[in-house]
Amino acid sequence: MIHLIPLMIERVGIVLIAAFLFSQVKSFRKLIEQHQGGRDKVLLVLIFGLLGVVSNYTGIKIFPETITGNTWLMEVEPDSAIANTRIMGITIGGLLGGPVVGIGVGLISGIHRYFLGGFTATACAVSAVLAGGAAGYLGLWRKKRKSITAGYAVGVGVSMEAIQMLLILALTDPFSRAFRLVEVIAFPMIVVNGLGMLLFMLIIQNIVREQEKTRALQTTKAFTIADRTLPYFRKGLNGESCQEVARIMLDLTEADAIVITDSEGVLAHVGSAEDHHKPTKGFATELTKKVLKQGEVIMAKSREEILCRNEDCPLLAAVVLPLKVHGETVGTLKLYFHDPASLTEVQQQLAEGLAKLFSTQLEHADAEEQLKLLKDAEVKALQAQIHPHFLFNSINTISVLCRTQPEKARELLQELSHFFRSNLQGARNLVIPLEKEIEHVKAYLSLEQARFPDRYEVSWEVERGLEARLVPPFVLQPLVENSIRHAFTRRREKGDVLVRITIEGSDLHIRVSDNGNGIPEEKRMILGNETVPSKHGTGTALVNIKERLDGIYSHRARFAITSKVGTGTEISIRIPYESTGGLQS
């Protein structure tokens, strides 16, 4: 029994070498992702099925009196059996790919083992299929609750091997011969396959960690570029700003040339091929025209695909991405490479992320330009209340989370995009649905609470059926912002903010209350009626809200502040209920 262990470790080594080699292949690393399509599952079945076949061929032949472990098994004599590592590949395949993959791998390995022969052929074939299906369901169950750890995989693998021993005893005749075989192989196979499962899962976990690290680094780089290019994109798509943006991107990416265009021509080209890819009306390549027309990302990995008219152009690969403002393609971002191999999936994902960020920045710039043309002075004043450093603080927060919580960072990036998009869209409308105003506030709170997770808690009580009611934009967000910024200063205990929206009589009643420091009476009497200069703010937002309510609802809306020092503050807005359903945005 003991002298079988070194031979089994050799066989495990073969499978681990194969696993390591697979881990260096990009397509295999992609398959390790938790969400696999039909094609990916087929590939997993083939890969782990192949490992199962190799395990059969490299098995150790067990005769009644001898053990033979130095040959490539092409067949097994009727009076012999084999000890191998087949269960290891079957279990890993099932855990990673689910029941379909597990059963598929089990069928390939089991059928192959059956045709090799030997007195345990039937039991081994049946156990292979059962182990694959069981591992698949156990893996699926585990993923719904938490990630699959190496310890969990070892436990499943050892259990599957033990079940195989029981099936050999149950399905093999005569029982005495099956029992003698299990006495010899059970302990070495269970122990060594358990060790193999542990090492195999460590390789898989290393792949996952490297992928997460790559995403985090990529996201950090994207935010660095976005942070440095923001001042230029705020000026819109023009030659001067785009030239600076292209230079920044060339320094911070691996591209050999960066090009930015609008819908009419090239605005900036920095890097290789500047001699003929010059800023001009019209385009040097047909590829740009395709992206502008289709509004989709296009990749090219040859001079012919780039469609450059210059035969000496050194640029042999490119990814061209649309820049969109409010869903309309207004320009393109192009990354060019000398070597097609340099245009990796990582570079493509980075470029796509930057294009989305740039599009958001352009939407921001477009909205800022439109703000200058708005006749509604109060809306412009409220827009100015958004703190200049809010975007940068949010980006810095997300950048930190990229290293520790990449999923949380991606969620906050979506909230940041949603916040600014809602902010810009609200500036174009006199009124918006209440649910949009609430979404805007919640996006803002997600970003602020990421920076100060334990300072305060915001609760919501919104009466059903009010989601579609129309309210002026930027009414709720400044009230909540005032509470979290001013109510809890110099306090250690956690603050509470309650937003309550109900129908009371003929009014839509909005109340934002907190248990904060409260406002002195002399200051409370002024707030909302005039600005109050202080180091923490001026109260302009409250003045603007009150004046806008008076203008929109002909002085029928009500704005009130109640407060007690040391107890808290409540700001109340009453809007005529019939007006909230009749105004047009």
Automatic annotation (TrEMBL):
InterPro entries listed in its UniProt record: Bact_2-comp_sensor_kinase, GAF, GAF-like_dom_sf, HATPase_C_sf, HATPase_dom, His_kinase_dom, Sig_transdc_His_kin_internal, Sig_transdc_His_kinase_LytS_TM
GO molecular function, a single term: phosphorelay sensor kinase activity
One Gene Ontology CC term in the entry: plasma membrane
Transmembrane segments: 43-64, 85-108, 114-140, 152-172, 184-204
GO BP annotation list: cell wall organization
Domain Histidine kinase: 475-579
Catalysed transformations (reactions): ATP + protein L-histidine = ADP + protein N-phospho-L-histidine
Record PROSITE patterns: HIS_KIN
Topology class, membrane: Multi-pass membrane protein
Cellular location(s): Cell membrane
Keyword Kinase: yes
Enzyme class of the recorded protein, top EC level: transferase
Domain of life of the source: Bacteria
Primary location recorded for the protein, binned into one broad class: membrane
Entry keyword set: ATP-binding, Cell membrane, Kinase, Membrane, Nucleotide-binding, Phosphoprotein, Transferase, Transmembrane, Transmembrane helix, Two-component regulatory system
Entry EC no(s): 2.7.13.3
PANTHER family xref list: SENSOR HISTIDINE KINASE YPDA
The name this protein goes by in its record: histidine kinase
